[in-house]
Amino acid sequence: MSNEITIAENRLKPFSTMQLLMFCLGFFGLQFAWQMRLALSGPVTEELGADPLIYGLISLAGPFSGMVVQPIIGALSDRTTSRFGRRRPYLLGGAILASLALWVFPNSGTIVEFFGNSFGIAVAPLAGLVLAGIMIWIIDACVNIAQGPYRALIPDVVPREQHAIANSYLSFAIGLGSVVAAATPPVLSKFFGITMPIPAQFLMAAIAFTGAMIVTCIAIEEKQYIPEKKDETNENKPSFWDSLKDFLTTSPEIVKICMLQFFTWIGTMCLLLYFTLFVVHNLYGVPDIIAEGTDASVYDAVRLSGTNFALICMALFNLVCFLVSIPIGFLSTKFGNKYVHCAALLSMAAAYLILGFAQTRLMVVLGIGLAGIGWASILSLPFAMLSEYIKPGSEGSVMGIFNIFIAGPQVVVCTLVAGIINHSTILRETGTFYHWEYAFFIGALVLFCAAIASLTIKEKKI
Questions:
Q1: What are phi and psi for residue 6, nearest 5 degrees?
Q2: Do residues 370 and 351 touch, judged by C-beta distance below 8 A?
Q3: Does a structural domain hold residue 419?
């Protein structure tokens, strides 16, 4: 056997409720930052000159880093034996680098203009957009650096019988982090009269990400791993394709779970990427391309109102996720992961249809709230199903490879769905509008397919 890392034989002790909460705190910070990136990257890049297709291409940062960064980092973390542990260096390193990029991103236009003025350099019209695009790629890469090893911590330190509950606690943290991130600016504005500019929101996210991750790394003790002796007759590490083949041939059920994730995440990203722009333009009536001769500043107030309403909706979306995540874990233990997950996906598909036909804010609120049930399940149960088939010592590699089936579908959303929206317009007196609602109709269809696919999975009995 090559220079692999084996798990010490000591029995994993069950986690208490407090330990589970401390374990998921770092994911709270990660999702806090990710929520800001998802909800506000559209408005930021739009102001810098991005249309739907350009925004989609910039958003390829997420799937690209998920398909490339997570498998590499996952494999590296499996073999890491530093004094700080296997996973901690990646959790902390990813959080710190992402936090720096989170500060730069919303200030990209100002930074480019400052350097141009300071050095007497002519600034290209889209220079700010280019810098913002680079920062999004850095943010997404660093989030993936932290996320893969974080998921791998569950089979590392949590007993197998608590895997579903531990994943549900991560879903709980994701919901809570997203609620706090999305709700803070509108709540400060509504009840305290404090207007929080977008750069301040991103700075808040950066601080939350790094601070929460530090606390988790201190609180959670990683299991001891012992490097095996190097076999000089076989020094070659398995290639990525060998690892992928080994992963997919472990069990036929793994292929089914991967296909489930593929369809699920096409549908999921249709909401996460385009919801804010849908609200601002379709619901609040701000033209995507303002009619010639119209002062764009007349829409500033309504654009801000639309953005704040979208943040409130995303807070509700994640509040529902937060509230149902722990019950979903217990229900899946009683009735089985696949049945609970199928019901949750069907509810999310129905929610998308409500959003697609929504003409009022009430319909949007109802749709986004219902979608939160599916979101809670998506963030936990597929990982719980997969964890039944993970070989000890390969957790990081498996989570990295599994993420390909989360990241890959996002390429479809960032290119094909973005292209459909970009070429679907309607001309009105106030300007040109894109059909952002098409994203929800596409999402509903693929989520229905995912729900059917989940029923074909055979689960192990614990």
A1: -110, 155
A2: yes
A3: yes
Q: How far apart are CA 55 and CA 306, in angstroms?
A: 19
Residue (of 111, 126, 148) closest to 30 by Cα position: 148
pLDDT attached to residue 9: 41
Q: How many structural domains are present in the chain? A: 1
Strands 425-428, 431-434: pairing kind: antiparallel
Would you say residue 211 lies in a domain? Answer: yes
Distance, CA of 238 to CA of 227 (rounded, Å):
17
- Span 226-268, pLDDT tens digits: 555 544 444 455 555 566 666 666 667 788 888 899 999 999 9
Name the average pLDDT for the chain. Answer: 83
| Tokens 């076999």 belong to residue | 231
Does 11 reside within a domain? no
Which residue reads 């999975």 in tokens?
A: 457
* Residue for token pair 């999921």: 268
Number of CB atoms found within 10 A of residue 135's CB: 27
Question: What does 398-423 look like in DSSP terms, one character per residue?
Answer: HHHHHTHHHHHHHHHIIIIIHHHHHT
Band of pLDDT at residue 354, cut at 50, 70 and 90? very high
C-alpha 157/C-alpha 8 separation (Å) is 11
Confirm whether 277 is domain-assigned.
yes
Instruction: Tell whether the torsion through CA atoms of 342, 273, 357 and 449 is positive or negative.
Output: negative
Q: 399-409, pLDDT tens digit by residue?
A: 667 777 888 88
The letter for the amino acid at 289 is I
C-alpha 348/C-alpha 264 separation (Å) is 10
Q: What is the pLDDT of residue 211?
A: 94
Mean pLDDT of 120-142: 85
Residue 11, Cα to own-chain centre: how many angstroms? 32
List the domain range (segments joined by +) for residue 352: 16-226+243-454
- Distance of alpha carbon 222 from alpha carbon 278, whole angstroms: 43
For the stretch 333-344, pLDDT in tens is: 788 888 999 999
DSSP classification of residue 249: T
CATH number at residue 290: 1.20.1250.20
